[in-house]
Amino acid sequence: MKIYINKSAYEKLKKRFLWIYQNEITKAPECDAGSVVDVYYKDTYVATAFYNSLSKISARIISFEKTHLDKNFFKKRIEKAIKKRELIKNTNSLRLIHSEADFLPGLIVDKYGDNLVVSFTTAGMDNFKGIIIEILIELLNPKGIYEKGDKIREKEGLEVINQTLYGSVDDEFVIVENDKKFFTSLKEGQKTGFFLDQRKNRKIVGEFGNEKTLDLFANAGGFGIYANAKFTKFVEISALACSQIEKNCTLNNLKNYQIIKADVFKFLENEKEKYDLIIIDPPAFAKTKSARKGAIKGWKYLIVNSLKLLEEGGFLALFSCSHSITSKDLLDLALSSAVIEKCDLEVIEFLKQDIDHPYLLNVPNSLYLTGVLLRRV
User: Fold this and answer.
1) From its record, what is one biological process in GO terms (predicted)?
2) Residue 251 in contact with residue 181, Cβ under 8 Å?
3) Range(s) of the domain holding residue 146
4) Has residue 332 got a pLDDT over 90?
5) Is the pTM of this model over 0.70?
6) Residue 204, domain member (yes or no)
7) Domain check: are 212 and 360 in the same one?
8) Residue 9 and residue 137 share a domain
9) Helices marked H in the chain — which ranges?
10) What CATH number is attached to the domain comprising 26?
11) How far apart are CA 269 and CA 149, in angstroms?
12) Same domain, 211 and 335
């Protein structure tokens, strides 16, 4: 089967971009969601892709060469992705496959010890689920494989499913990361169980500020635990996450801390204590460009009110997990907030997702987690 694209899409694909949008397709057959198609511009073959007319991103490139998608094809791709991760030595948990960034669009595989947690977020990859699971069993011999449903499946016309696909998966697992340990619920936690992408950033940020730490949107408490300050305050709205923070503080022998179950915005209205390290790591405020304006306003409030609580010489870590709020946006927001607070901020580190969540230059969207560490001077 063939689909035909317009010149604009062709120019992008020449630069090895991996998505084709609905309005860039000039002709396509009626076919099942996730069908494998050859992409043509006029009479020229361009790539092979998964095609799904239900999705705004209607075609996702799987190869720039004509190829037959069989078990051998997927095995080679998966082996290559696993080999890339051999550089990571300081943990028992990491992402093995990161969708388009490993040229496997719609496939996420996270390894927690002998457990694998997988997500199939595109119809194309979902069609090959059986083969993918066979390969993962052959290559990794896991204790169990659990499929974590992602709401993005609905955009592909797929049901959101949570299920054990093979063996048995630990309900609770202890992640060992550098010299820290974290409980995680593989079936109930956010993402596929834990924010593995922040591993490197937790270590970097944790080296700054050791008197009083404020960990906002704390999730499992990773940043505050790494900082190991004389006093740590965690603020998190989720009851499940708050219980995880409590367990993780005990597991890491953190003594002097307070966990506050609250909305961070409301918490900042009344907080008066001063801190020498503040971390702002919110969920994605802007998953789409249309939500950007509201996200910028929310970020401004968070930074201005955090600066009111930051000691001179103290450190402020900002993280955006949305491609719509960039590193430059964070710097612009920090600068305008510093002007309001009549203070100066120095850039200490630029931060991004760890290397098991690759950032491909030809896929700008694969840089989804950006951050900056600042010092108040």
Assistant:
1) rRNA processing
2) yes
3) 71-172
4) yes
5) yes
6) yes
7) yes
8) no
9) 7-14, 71-84, 123-126, 129-140, 199-206, 222-227, 239-251, 264-270, 292-307, 327-341
10) 2.30.130.10
11) 36
12) yes
Whether the pLDDT of residue 192 is over 80: the answer is no
- What digits encode the pLDDT tens for the residues 263-297? 999 999 999 999 999 999 998 876 666 778 888 99
Tell me what pLDDT residue 358 has: 96
**What confidence tens digit (pLDDT) does each residue in 227-255 have?**
999 999 999 999 989 999 999 999 999 99
Residues ≥6 apart with Cβ < 8 Å to 211: 229, 230, 231, 275, 276
Is the residue at 213 inside a domain?
yes
The answer to whether residues 33 and 133 belong to one domain is no
- For residues 209 and 344, state if they share a domain: yes
22 with 95, same domain? Answer: no
CA 54/CA 189 separation, integer angstroms = 29
315 three-class SS? strand
**CATH (domain of 201):** 3.40.50.150
Listed in order, strand segments (DSSP E) in the chain are 2-5, 19-21, 25-27, 35-41, 44-51, 57-63, 93-98, 107-112, 115-120, 144-147, 163-167, 172-177, 180-185, 212-216, 231-236, 257-261, 275-280, 310-320, 345-352, 370-376
